[in-house]
Amino acid sequence: MHQPAVPHLHDQDPEIAGLVEDEARRQYEKLRLIASENYVSPAVLEASGTVLTNKYSEGYAGRRYYEGQQFVDPIETVAIERAKELFGTEHANVQPYSGSPANLAVYMAFLDPGDPVMGLSLPMGGHLTHGWSVSATGKWFRSVRYDVRADTGCVDMDQVRDLALKERPKLIWCGGTAIPRIIDFPAFAEIARETGAVLAADIAHIAGLVAGGAHPSPVGHADVITTTTHKTLRGPRGAMILSTAEHAKAVDKAVFPGLQGGPHDHTTAAIAVALKEASQPDFPAYAHQIVANARALAAALVERGYDLISGGTDNHLTLMDLTNKGIGGKPAAQALDRAGIELNYNAVPFDTRKPFDPSGLRVGTGAITTRGLTERHMPQIAAWMDEVVQAATKQDESVVERVAGEVREMLASYPIPGWTPTP
Ligand SMILES: *Cc1c(COP(=O)(O)O)cnc(C)c1O
After folding, report:
1. What is each CA distance from 199 to 116, 117, 137, 186, in whole angstroms?
2. Structural element, H or E, at residue 199
3. How many CA atoms lie within 13 A of 193 on its CB side?
4. Ligand 1: which of 117, 122, 127 to mutate, judged by most atoms within 8 Å of the beta carbon?
5. What is the arithmetic mean of pLDDT over 114-129?
6. What is the pLDDT of residues 34-64, one digit of tens each?
7. Is 56 designated active site?
8. Do both 183 and 310 map to the same domain?
9. Is the pLDDT at 1 greater than 80, yes or no?
10. Which of 338, 353, 377, 380 has its CA 20 to 30 A from that of 172?
11. Residue 79 within any structural domain of the chain
12. pTM of the model
């Protein structure tokens, strides 16, 4: 884009500028398969780095506690209107600092401390903030967990219903961080209605797919929807809470003054830009390409004898169980990273290994799709992954080095938004 990428930072603080430059190069040279990551557009990058970071704006447009909101108010209003339009909701709050605070705000809006909350358990693909024990949400609320079925790898809706009838949670979460299949929002909604619970859909991972029509929407089913803005939605680090008009006041009050102080206005602007991008005619093609890539990658991995939770994927991610390959997720992920293939080790349902060294790998296609890779690249990626996993079981670093070179060479034809290498 420009060289150096950060000229003022380069002069003022070469140490940090150098590290930022190194990170940009790393993102350029690696095949980034972390399911929660992406590449934002230059416009989103620019919006996040503006003078808006200088402003304080506690409150909401027209009702602020600080003066000088002549331009921040319309920025936040535009972001809200774009969110409502894109997802088809009556209300949007764009102030949560990130996904975890957005989820906490949902507790704040609907629950009292100690109230029962139900969510997918963490090792089964749920998120920490859905009531897992080490999270504030698991410590301050009475948490009830549902699982996936051992035979299908999918959420057991009969168990969800039985548990909800027995435990009467005030809040039910659906969604998670390692769910490779479509989330059945209507089925969750029916259970929530039957048991008198509030249904919260956490679409952090799949928001871009929902916006692009590549995954069913929870709108009309869930009472409240939370999402990060930086995963498949391809915006800045941030989050939103979407709801019906009925819950608007409770949601807004929970975010501010319930949980947060001043919103990050530079992030709000960048969210607005990302939402505009997501409403463009080419966005659905991106969303569907993510899924096509994930399916093609999953099929190529299955062909090479890899065991996938639920047997495949309907969305952007695949969860691999390496048990039959004789290697843990962590050493495999580390070898793959050295080979230029960046992903994360992950627990698999009913994992027999420890959380810090689980059996699985999570693989996502959001970032590589943004970069322009398509189905035709996926067999090669699966072949590299297989080579490296096998080499890792024999501690063969020569394969790792060769693959790193091949990955770099292939990716050199696919520029990343926001940075170009110096020749
Ligand atoms: C990523 C994620 C979050 C949390 O987002 P942070 O921005 O990391 O706090 C919450 N829920 C789900 C399902 C997620 O995948």
Report:
1. 13, 10, 16, 11
2. strand 198-202
3. 9
4. 127
5. 96
6. 999 999 999 999 999 999 999 999 999 999 9
7. yes
8. no
9. no
10. 353
11. yes
12. 0.97
CATH label of the domain that carries residue 332: 3.90.1150.10
Q: Is 386 a catalytic residue?
A: no
The CB of 135 under 6 Å from ligand 1? The reply is no
**Does 11 fall in a domain?**
no
Query: Count of domains in the chain?
Result: 2
Please identify which of the residues 56, 115, 353, 375 carries the catalytic annotation: 56
Atom of ligand 1 lying closest to residue 205 CA:
15
Domain containing 218 — which CATH number? 3.40.640.10
What is the length of the chain? 423
3-state class (DSSP) for residue 143? strand
What are the phi and psi torsion angles at 416 (to 5°)?
-105, 150
Question: pLDDT band at 4, cuts 50/70/90?
Answer: low
* Ligand 1 pocket: which of 107, 177, 237 to mutate (most atoms within 8 A of CB): 177
> Which residue type occupies 317?
L
- The reported pLDDT for the residue numbered 3 is 55
> Can you tell me the mean pLDDT for 88-109?
98
How many other CB atoms are there within 10 angstroms of residue 249's CB atom? 12
pLDDT in tens, 152-183: 999 999 999 999 999 999 999 999 999 999 99
345 is catalytic: no
Active-site pick, 177, 228, 318, 370: 228
Distance 14 CA to ligand 1 centre (A): 32
Within-domain flag for 355: yes
Last residue of a domain, one of 223, 257, 278: 278
Protein residue closest via CA to atom 13 of ligand 1 = 176
Structural domain containing residue 121: 47-278
Instruction: Indicate which residue's Cα is closest to atom 4 of ligand 1.
Output: 99
Does ligand 1 come within 6 angstroms of the Cβ of 204? yes
Q: Which residues contact 315 (CB under 8 A, 6 or more apart)?
A: 179, 180, 181, 182, 205, 206, 209, 214, 215, 290, 291, 294
User: Which residue type occupies 155?
Assistant: V
| Side chain identity at residue 291, one-letter code | V
Residue closest to 272 by CA, chosen among 76, 12, 423: 76
Are 325 and 251 within one domain?
A: no
In a domain, 14, yes or no: no
Name the residue type at position 323.
T
The pLDDT of residue 329: 97
pLDDT of 235 reads 98
Q: Which atom of ligand 1 is nearest to the CA of 239?
A: 7
- Residue 103 alpha carbon, nearest atom of ligand 1: 10
